[in-house]
Amino acid sequence: MTRPPTTLDILVRRDADDLHLSLSGRLDAHQVPGFLAAAEPLAARTTLDLGGVTFMDSSGLAALVRLVRTARAAGQDLGIVNVQDGVRLAMEITGLYAVLPIR
């Protein structure tokens, strides 16, 4: 049986106005510091691609909320794309799916 990944891989593409983060693996308490370090500072337009995220705990959800608040306070655009079913379920249970900028 194949075990799910226990790490988070982050592919970062950044230019003057755009930041694109493609995440793959688990976004949990152990991975949040590296995720936030890769995401900050945010760009004028930031995209978080969660297509490869297999698991997200409350720490991961809190990190998303933190980035969304930071972007909004700075007048920046942040969008979340490719949310997988398991992660979507965690967002729906917590009520965050309706308030996060999911595209």
TrEMBL record:
UniProt cross-references to InterPro entries, sorted A to Z: Anti-sigma_ant, MlaB-like_STAS, STAS_dom, STAS_dom_sf
PANTHER family the UniProt entry points to: ANTI-SIGMA FACTOR ANTAGONIST TM_1081-RELATED, ANTI-SIGMA FACTOR ANTAGONIST TM_1081-RELATED-RELATED
Gene Ontology molecular function: anti-sigma factor antagonist activity
Family: Belongs to the anti-sigma-factor antagonist family.
Protein's name according to its UniProt entry: Anti-sigma factor antagonist
Domain STAS: 48-103
CDD domains tied to this protein: STAS_anti-anti-sigma_factors
